[in-house]
Amino acid sequence: MHDMLVKLYSLPEYSGLKSEIEASGIIFRRPLSAEKSILLDWVNRHYGSGWASEVDVSFSYQPISSFIAVREQAIIGFATYDAAYRNFFGPTGVDQAFRGKGIGKVLLMECLEAMRAQGYAYAIIGGVGPAEFYRKAVGAELITGSDPGIYKGILSDIPHEAK
User: What pLDDT is stored for residue 161 in this prediction?
Assistant: First the structure.
């Protein structure tokens, strides 16, 4: 999976999309420290321990370098930045029941806007799965020669015999 590059100085407007989603009862915000174990459990359950480990790193920063989408006091999505490496966006995920509604795009934009506010001009989206989503959402471009990238040789919690 390739990495992608995003120009933070030319991000698209998304406040209308965010307002529309929030009007349906979904809230976008940074998690509180007291919610760390709840978020880590949710991410581990839906996406595995590797992603949960990266989200865990986000709690070592002030402000916390993650955002969550919450509906009726339940997490339905998350996005993290500066976790695997500085200036990297990801991981991110939205509950299957809520995909295709713009929630992932708002979470992405919240993180990218926070990165821009920290002084970054560009962001790297690491190990991209849905490249077309990122291309369409923020004009991200594939980084030539970035496959397998930073995750080459990463350890897995899946026993070798089970693969």
Answer: 46
Question: Which tokens belong to 22?
Answer: 């929030």
What is d(CA 29, CA 33) in angstroms, rounded to the nearest whole number? 13
CB atoms inside a 10 Å sphere around CB 123: 25
Q: Does 31 sit behind a cis peptide bond, omega within 30 degrees of 0 on the bond before it?
A: no
How distant, in Å, are the alpha carbons of 70, 138, 140, 150 from that of 12?
Answer: 23, 6, 11, 27
Which structural domain range is residue 59 located in?
A: 4-150
Return the ∠ at Cα 96 (arms to 148 and 17), rounded to 5°: 90
pTM: predicted TM-score of the whole model, two decimal places:
0.93
Split into its structural domains, the chain has a count of: 1
The residue to which tokens 């990165």 are assigned: 115
Model pLDDT for residues 5-17, shown as the tens digit of each residue: 999 999 999 999 9
Average pLDDT, the chain: 94
Q: In this predicted structure, what is the pLDDT of residue 157?
A: 64
Residues with Cβ within 8 Å of residue 73, at least 6 apart in sequence? none
Structure confidence by residue, pLDDT tens digits, 65-97 = 999 999 999 999 999 999 999 999 999 999 999
Does residue 123 sit within a domain? yes
